[in-house]
Amino acid sequence: MHRSLRLRLLAGSLVWIVAAVAITGFLLADLFGQHVRERVDAELNGHLDQLTAVLDVAPDGSATLRLPLSDPRLSRPYAGLYWQVDGGPTGAIGLLRSRSLWDTALAVPPDALADGEVHVHQVDGPDASQLRMMERLIRPAELPDTAYRLIVAIDTRQIDEPVEDFATLLAIALGVLALGLAAAAVLQVGVGLAPLGRMRDALGAVRDGHARRLEGDYPQEVQPLVDELNTLLAHNEATVERARTQAGNLAHAVKTPLAILANAARNDSSDLARLVDEQVGDARRQVDYHLALARARAAAAVQQAGLKTPLRPVLDGLIRVMSRLHAERNLHIALTDVADTLACRGDTQDLQEMLGNLLDNACKWARSQVSISATLSDGLITVHIDDDGPGLSEAQRTAVLARGVRADEHTPGSGLGLAIAHDLARVYGGDLRLDTAPLGGLRATLQLPAA
Amino acid sequence: MRILVVEDEPTLAQQLADALTDAGYAVDRADNGLDAHYLGDTEPFDAVVLDLGLPQMDGLTVLGKWRNAGRSMPVLILTARDDWHQKVAGIDAGADDYLTKPFHMAELLARLRALIRRAGGHASALLNCGPLCLDTRNSQLTRDGQPVSLTSHEYRVLSYFMHHPGKVISRTELTEHLYAQDFDRDSNTIEVFVGRLRKKLPEGMIETVRGLGYRLVAPT
């Protein structure tokens, strides 16, 4: 409940709908019941008036009806509507009765009625029924001491049945209404929350590298949030870019003096000059290594989203570079099975950095051939970079990936390339493994998350 | 062979110039992008060493302008920026090689030699013409396998001939490629060096083409 806006909104709507419909139902049923009872009472009253009007009392106290009462139910046995006259000089029960009472008489509780007063009672009737009874006491002018108790009664089933029928119909109608309202509420919540769903999809696209910003128009309640997110994404990009620029500036600031120192030292053969030369080499390697990692960590730290780098153009560009940098070697660099659709999640420069170091290493050691292939499986892109050079022993492979260890002390500018590629791949949630290539030399296997 | 060194750090520029001069090249220098562009656009260089972070106009822009104007001399980028994306950008802008600071001067010289050689269409470090063989790696000339000793000026002239065998080379062209811009050029000195070279080479290998210049030919 606390987690889902949709459930919260739906639950609120449903509680409100059920309560409103239930209260309406009870009120309507109650009103209808009252109405029916009033109608029945009015009817009983009419019958009572009619009975009063047609009752003739002889001077000897015997009573007769001048006319039969009009309602046909009164002449059908146990039809549910009855009349009875009690009293008279003998005080008999059932002095006169309607035919509908057949062979029974109504047992009426004793009651003291003022003249002309009408009382209503609930009594047992024939056939195990419950009756609503209305009675009046009259004293004829000719016999002022003799009271006649005039009674009409109706089976309560005749009241309850229409009320129950109405309640059933009402329940069905209100149920249908409640279902309609609930469906409307579901629809409304769905439509109302749809922009949030779209926003989630757009964010997913950014995370998966299909987009760099949240795109599309959103309602004015959601748009500020979308704008804020886009601003944040832009800010992150700028942060990474700044870190890169600073790293580049630092590289420039440090390396030019190092170059000067190294050149000056090489013109000299003293111990000091040799020391300077050595240390400059070390300093350079450390700067390279830490700058490469600093750049990658900047990217990783802000979780740079929305970055998708197609593999093919990066490899093509690097192969152009390799064919220049290693032009003297006349290497055959073969790019096989690299589909145009392959793309890595992450930054172009970092991908260039990893692949550049691996390719450079392969070109440096290859005798004549370097081979590159890439495949996609289970969301991982696997790039094989093979050479036909001398390769590395098991121990060397482990050592070369360890930080700061140089596998070849003799070729300038090398040694940390593989370690940098390894650490960068780890930052990106991938990995770098070294192996023996089918060509005979080193196989570097770089695995990176696909976009 | 004449090289343009574009480097805004004066000490490094001086070190480069010294090393290149020692290696027998004529060296011109520029310490900003605008001067570099102008020099490269108007003077015939055999190679350029180009820094990327330059005042006034950055190195990649300079390179792009040269290439757009059809200037095809080999260019080696020498920079502290060693990101691979910078290297790709540099190569794609038209650079022929890329070296990062700090560097070994020996490697720079080797790469420059190779660039100049390949620009002349030579695949190997050994340039052959008839009985002559010039090893560009150690500046050693052999004639029928026997070493021939040359002064540095003689070497420069012969090296230019060996890079362009069979091509008629005017005295002006030789002068432009053998001396830096601020050098007091006197085409008579060229004649002197050609004369000395002729004495060390087999008869008739350096022909005089009247009114046009010289040509290196393999003896028949």
TrEMBL record, chain B:
InterPro entries: CheY-like_superfamily, OmpR/PhoB-type_DNA-bd, Sig_transdc_resp-reg_receiver, WalR-like, WH-like_DNA-bd_sf
DNA-binding region: 124-218
Cellular component, GO annotation: cytosol; protein-DNA complex
Alphabetical UniProt keywords: DNA-binding, Phosphoprotein, Transcription, Transcription regulation, Two-component regulatory system
One Gene Ontology term of the molecular function aspect: transcription cis-regulatory region binding
Annotated coiled-coil segments of the chain: none
Chain positions with 4-aspartylphosphate modification: D51
Domain Response regulatory: 2-116
GO biological process: regulation of DNA-templated transcription
PROSITE patterns for the chain: OMPR_PHOB, RESPONSE_REGULATORY
Domain OmpR/PhoB-type: 124-218
CDD domains in the record: REC_OmpR_EcPhoP-like (cd19934), trans_reg_C (cd00383)
Protein name listed in UniProt: Response regulator transcription factor
